[in-house]
């Protein structure tokens, strides 16, 4: 775990990355890479077990609650080091963990980009978007064959690659990803990462952990979110069909808990690490946390 900040008196921001097993853009190898963030927060970068510097082959005994337990242990250790208010910023898979932490009143607030509610990945919105795309017929047929009963790690990776290539579900048209070349340069120049750790950002011990994929496609977090005991704010891209924005809107229609709030981000999709939205989210976090 990397803890980095300009001052020990700053509020703490614990990152729960996506994937599972995809610690980008924030990870243990990015010391010094995000001074705008470390000027305002004590950043806690955690490569979740199975990825990055914590690469480890996960078997099917692992589930989201395994990571919730690890996150709680980490929060307890951080609070022993710093009494400062502790906030969470989660993305995608990390939003399952954050929703299950929403009863932990040691957390001052939770912020999420791309909240999983239910019907993640395998939903009618994705299939409709693929239907309306120029995806080859054989790939479209393969996508239609994937369901909650027969999905495998390989079939889900192919399914996600179709979404990335043929729809705006991951990246809205006209937006630009953060420079992957610059990120790699930062990682390879890191004092904290070895070459092996850099490779394990993408190719790691989570690749064949079917239990985590099955949990994502079957998850239903409505109760956890509607009953959150801590402030919980969702940033949801208007094009996001991966962690469905439609499901987030349905959730909020039945919400009577003032601690649960959301906003739709225009011209945005599931992927957080775009040039257009990175600084915008930082500005919003500063405003929400410091005001």
Describe the protein.
This protein is 39% helix and 12% strand. The chain contains twelve helices and seven strands. Strands 1-3-2-4-5-6-7 form a seven-stranded mixed β-sheet, sandwiched between helices. Strand 4 (86-91), helix 3 (93-100) and strand 5 form a beta-alpha-beta unit. Helix 2 crosses helix 3 and helix 5 packs across helix 6. The longest helix has 18 residues, at 64-81.
What labels would you give this structure?
single chain, 12% strand, 7 strands, alpha/beta, 7-stranded mixed sheet, 291 residues, globular, 12 helices
In short:
It is built from twelve helices and seven strands. The protein has helices at 35-38, 64-81, 93-100, 124-131, 137-145, 153-166, 180-188, 195-199, 210-218, 222-226, 245-253, 275-290, and strands at residues 2-4, 12-16, 42-45, 86-91, 109-113, 231-237, 260-265.
